[in-house]
Amino acid sequence: MNYDLILKDCKIINGSGNPWFYGEIGIKDGKIIRINSEIKDNASKVINVNKNIVCPGFIDIHSHTDYILPLLGKVESTI
Questions:
Q1: What is the pLDDT of residue 59?
Q2: Which residues on adjacent β-strands are paired with residue 10?
């Protein structure tokens, strides 16, 4: 398979509760297609992550409610 992007030399934390592991991530059409210890296929772009942490599938839910919360007493959850 040809990927749009392969991330190599990743320290992967997948949120399953299992320990992190080194591996590679293949991405095509904006979706993670494969996570494996090594991906030998081709890609349009290859990035060596240099053992930095990659958390595939995590969603950044960072938000600030520090101003509106004291004014209203509650804040509705939104995505």
A1: 74
A2: 23
51 assigned to some structural domain = yes
For residue 58, is it within any domain? yes
pLDDT, tens digit (0-9, with 9 covering 90-100), for 29-73: 999 999 999 999 999 999 999 999 999 877 766 766 666 666 666
Residue 37's CATH number: 2.30.40.10
Please state, in angstroms and rounded to a whole number, the distance separating the CA atoms of residues 39 and 6. 8
The answer to whether the beta carbons of residues 5 and 44 sit under 8 Å apart is: yes
Give the H or E element holding residue 71. Answer: helix 68-72
Look up the pTM and report it: 0.72
Residues 6+ apart with CB under 8 A from 42: 2, 3
CA distance 34 to 69: 41
